[in-house]
Amino acid sequence: MARIKNGYDVTLNEENYRAIILEKLQSPPSLLDYFREYMNSDAITLEWGCLMFLFIEADADGDVHSLERYYNFLREYPPNYLLEAAMAHLEFRYYGKFFKAKEGFLRALGLKPNDAHCYYNLGLLYNLLGVFDKSISSYESAALYSQNSDKPAELRARSLYNIAAIKLNLNNDRRGAKLLLKESLEVMPDYELARKALMSLR
Amino acid sequence: MNRIVDFPGRKSPRFLYLDYWIPTRESGEKVDSIEIECNLNRSFEELNELTPYEDAIIRKDPTGLLRVLPGLKRTPLFQKYLRRLPLQGSEFIYKSVYFKTGGVLNLFNPEVREDMDNGLKTLVVKYGNKKRAIEVWRVKPSELWSGLTPQLVWAGGGEMEMKLLKDFLTKLTNEFDGERFESRGECLISTMKFLRRWQLTPNGVCRGKRPMVAIREEREKIFKRKIGFLQERGIMADFA
User: Fold this and answer.
1) Is B110 on the interface with A (CB under 8 A)?
2) Packing angle between helix A152-171 and helix A116-128, nearest 10 degrees?
3) What are the structural domain ranges in chain B?
4) Which candidate, B157, B146, B160, B154, places its Cα nearest to that of B110?
5) pLDDT digits 0-9 by tens, B113-129
6) Which residues make Cβ contacts (< 8 Å) with residue A37, sequence separation at least 6?
7) Beta-carbon separation of B143 and A126 below 8 A
8) What is the ipTM, given to two decimal places?
9) Which chain B residue has its CA at the smallest distance from A89's CA?
10) What are the tens digits of pLDDT across the range B168-181?
11) Is A130's CB within 8 Å of B199's CB?
12) Domain boundaries A113-202, CATH class
């Protein structure tokens, strides 16, 4: 608590820690709903609140060492979607441990089904792993549940673009790709990558 | 002489394999292993058109391999070759696939263990019978090996895959030599993206086919030949 007070000028106590965690998380609404329910558990304490606060800060700062440290403390508490997703992201983007990251995102989805960000990351992961059918289905789920994310239009547009790229490269499906790119641009009209790709197909 | 050395004077990544740029030490070592798998599947006139793999099954020793690669015995690679020759019965059981490289399509994948194989685990639960599960598993494209089936991973690559490996490494080096990356993850994501683009792009090395297609076709042929060879000699294999 002293570290939080000194470092962030925030005082966490029994009365306010739940509200402060929700405030730190900001959005999207589905995430806040998830945490409201999660924090109802009797296992969740002020100590958890402090660790979670520091975990969120470490995540925002990209402080890998602290992230791993707080994750290890927080594992003592009931499984938590955000921890699993953040650690899977770390395994993926920082360490390049793709299989471990895949398992992490799947675990996170088990805790918070229909999470568009996890599906989007799985779409990219499966694409890198050369499993193109699963990549497409993951991006389709990301597009389908994009409303659950903090940037629904962007996530949907990017997912559709990625599906179009795979279909084009894998099966030379120009017609399918065109439809997807058009839809992507309807959702995010200033998406330059999709615009250029569509132009190249004309 | 094969060598993998730290790339001098650069922060990251820093591996050279011969003259190629390689993102990680593991993938540099895998290049060696892929070449070995491909060499063991090549037919040689000196072996009456047999492969060193087949010759080792008949003789139960590496003399055929040493006849076609006489200088090999004095190099550190010899032990690696020995480990990949079918000198033990374990080569013919399904578990041996976890010791194969998966070839150029799996160049940047980490080592695979049986406990990572959720596909096989699921099938064993579904059929309640490991023998039946293996029969289904071996022909199913696997997430662990970039969509190759376990039986094609077990078969290994051949001459075409060796040529494609060199083509890929040349293009990889042209693309990334001198690049800097913030993390190992970022580096691997970039190189994996490059690999997936390459495998789907028609390539003159395989007469305008896409490398992914050419590699699968060659492995299918190698697989059929290996299984035929084993069956002729009454050798039981989980992949037969």
Assistant:
1) yes
2) 20
3) 4-232
4) B146
5) 999 999 999 999 999 99
6) none
7) yes
8) 0.91
9) B185
10) 999 999 999 888 89
11) yes
12) mainly alpha
